[in-house]
Design goal:
With 160 residues, the protein is mainly β. The protein is built from two helices and six strands; from the N terminus they run ββααββββ.
Length: 160
Amino acid sequence: MHPDWDPQDEKYDADIAIVILTREVQFNRFIQPVCLPVKSDNDVVGSGTVVGWGQTVNSEEFYLKPGETPMELEMPVVSHMLCFLRFPILAEVASERMFCGGYDNKSKGICFGDSGNGFYSINQNNARFYVKGIASASLMTHTTCDINKFSLFTNVARYT
């Protein structure tokens, strides 16, 4: 876990960790490496793709059975100004090392089970995928996440 992470803090700053594997991973057509962004590329713009096993229906039973097939969603990056103006509560939990992404009122977004998944984009110059963000936080309704609102992502370049 990042040394700045504090689970008691109201901000989601430093919501990032490194996993050290005990055995080597064999790459195949389903398992491929992803590049880390360079520090100078810390302003995330454009759009990216999030892949995850998160909740896709409004159900409190999801915690018992996550999705069996990963879903893929392309989503735009949203400026802090628009994100925080539209949903001020996100400003209360966001840190300077995060970015907003998603849609407003399109029923598309990340949900329970997607936290920790990457926000990827492809570099058109070298055709490589880069992990720009990590799914961190979404707003809630009374029973589940609200996929009609923007979400927060940890900005990976701020930690490289």
